[in-house]
Amino acid sequence: MTQAVVNEPLSEEELIDLTEGNELPIDEVDEPLYESEKAFHFIWNGEGLKKEDVADISVSGPTKLIAVVGSVGSGKTTLVASLFLRFQQGEFAGFSFAGSKTLVGFEQRCFESMAISGRNHPDTERTSLNAKDNFLHLELLSTSVSSTVQHVLFYDVTGEQYDDAMNSRSAAASLKFIANADVVLFLVDGEKIVNKKTRQLEPFDCSRLLEMLIETNKLGSKSNVTILFSKSDLFENADLEFLESFERQISERYRASFKSLKFSKIAARPLQEGVGELCLGLDEPFRNWIAGEGSKCFKANQSSLLSSFEKHAEIDRFIT
Amino acid sequence: MSRVCIAGLPDSGKSSFLAALAFLIWHGQIKTSLTRNNNSGVDNSYIDKLQRSYLSFEKQERTKLGDNNQIVFSLIGDGCPDGVEISLLDVSGEIYNEIWTERRFPLDLAEDFKHSECLILFISVKAQYQLAAITETTAGLQTINKEYVEDASIVSDEITTWNLGLASKQTMLVELMQCLVSCKESYAFSVNIVLSAWDEVYDKDKNMTPKEWLSHNLPLLDQFLFAHSQHLRVKLYGVSAQGCDLEDEEKVDELSKKFTSCERAYVCPEGEGMHHDLTAVISSFFD
After folding, report:
1. Residue of A116, A147, A275 with shortest CB distance to B149
2. Residues of B in contact with A88 (CB under 8 A)
3. What is the mean pLDDT of residues A241-250?
4. How far apart are CA A298 and CA A294, in angstroms?
5. In this predicted structure, what is the pLDDT of residue B139?
6. Smallest Cβ distance to B105: which of A43, A139, A269?
């Protein structure tokens, strides 16, 4: 346990130093005199995990890295926020909630779908371009396999990065984390599918992005790709027929390129009042993502033996 | 000395419980699993003040931020025949609120918890722990959610921007538990959860158990506790320290007529019937 005399907020470097167990020299520790100088134990910021934080998570147990890919408004953040909201209601897809280091991040992302926000229609805060803490964390316990705790890290970045990647090799090449993700979730915006003016663009954009990611080696024969048609509560029969063709086209073209290619229709947060249930259609896909093979767990139980340098080197290989 | 750490958000019933517990122990009107180990007087103005408010059927004043009131009980019982000194630190619930809002925890309290053998976590059944989704509510939702936020000026009829204070209390409680767990060097310890103001539940449904209440109203916390049950030895208690809603004048009048004031408070342990021995919440740590 370290002691910090706090007169001003600590810098990020100082916080990292403290959390790694480095004690301040004794002569720098003064007796607190006033309320403002009272010593505090600081906890994690809770908004998101940086690359460095991910190392500590990963050495503590099996960890699944899930990349959530899709253009602006396709439902990436809503998907992740809705999963957290679903766990707030109880167990889901054979898993129970065992913890999270990013509860603040989840609550913030859920806020605009809550009545307390003052909104009449649910929304999700757009992922900030300036966000540096991109990982959201869930710790889950399988309800079927006893004592199996699984860490899940969702990598949530802005839709603009994927829109850029559709047209730019360098932009696609910069999405390094996708190459090492255990599961890549590719969101297709259901709202655009039901809009006849934008419907035809979706398969086109989907193919463009897949091509770019394959060309830049971000997707390949080791990739587990799931294409999710979001906002499925909006679909009518004509839309479903269109989606069948969409699915067939993508499957024929790309199935051989990946280790696995699956499709699901989901409604993470059904828009119609009265529908109620969150994460429609996500039950089975979620179970497959988490329970499927390939969890990363590097040098478990040896984290204390790794120097800070070694830890960062490990995490660099893990996610870049 | 055995340290028992107590924690809970503001208005979770910590001080009311301590008042009722102190009165029970000091006056020995009923049989309890833990009793006073000696006849020494107690020179503790804080516990005296708590008891006076309790006997006057007054709502306990919120413990102020900065107040660190330590209460020491010297007790003896079947589980601790040689006697045990229990130290409890009653601090403001705002401290635990700040774990969420300021991401910090006073170091002296963290040290206290680090060295304590057990934790009593207070959760009031009167509070609202989950936020209503927009799709679940109708035109009355603004009113519902203004009641949720204690300071109604935070919520207006216009769109509200996010701040930490608007998170669900359920999530805050989970974060509080995660923080306390992180303070411990040894991961295994005992947690007794006191669902306070249990009269609100018991008067409506005497069959409702603390576990049922927790899984229905705080499912995220319930899952968390179960997921860590190999390390956290959790017991649940529904406790009514006051015996009734203090604003219900009829019930207050009825309770004030009881000669045995210790029978005013009651406890419903998970899996057991209702009784009046509040010391069971502590004695179970030594079973």
Report:
1. A116
2. 130, 168, 170-171, 219-220
3. 93
4. 12
5. 47
6. A43
Global pTM reads: 0.85
> Considering only CB atoms, which chain A residues are within 8 Å of B215?
90
Q: What angle do CA A199, A203, A208 make, to 5 degrees?
A: 135
For residue B99, which residues of chain A lie inside 8 Å, CB to CB?
A: 43
Q: Do B227 and A96 touch (CB under 8 A)?
A: yes
Per residue in A179-200, pLDDT tens? Answer: 989 999 999 999 999 998 999 9
Give ipTM to 2 decimals.
0.88
Q: pLDDT digit string (tens) for A281-305?
A: 999 999 999 987 655 554 443 444 4
CB atoms A40 and B104 under 8 Å? yes
Tokens (6 digits) for B246: 């203090």
Half-sphere exposure of A135 (CA within 13 A, CB side): 26
Q: Which of B131, B223, B230 sits opposite A114 (nearest CB)?
A: B131
Q: Residue A27: its pLDDT value, please?
A: 39
Higher-confidence position of A246 and A2: A246
CA distance B5 to chain A (A): 17
Considering only alpha carbons, which residue of chain A is nearest residue B180?
A: A43
Q: What is the mean pLDDT of residues B117-137?
A: 87
pLDDT above 50 (res A15): no
Distance separating alpha carbons of residues A24 and A33, to the nearest angstrom: 18
How far apart CA B203 and CA B242 sit, in angstroms, is 13
Give the Cα separation of A228 and A235 in Å (integer). Answer: 13
C-beta separation of B206 from B188 below 8 A:
no
**Chain B residues touching A270 at Cβ < 8 A:** 135
Residue in chain A nearest B112 by alpha carbon: A1
- Is the CB of residue B84 less than 8 Å from the CB of residue B75? yes
CA dist B227 and B92 (Å) reads 29
Percent of chain B clearing pLDDT 90 (strictly above): 39
Is the model's pLDDT at A24 over the cut of 60? no
Q: Which of B145, B166, B171, B182 to mutate to test the interface with A (most CBs of A within 10 A)?
A: B171
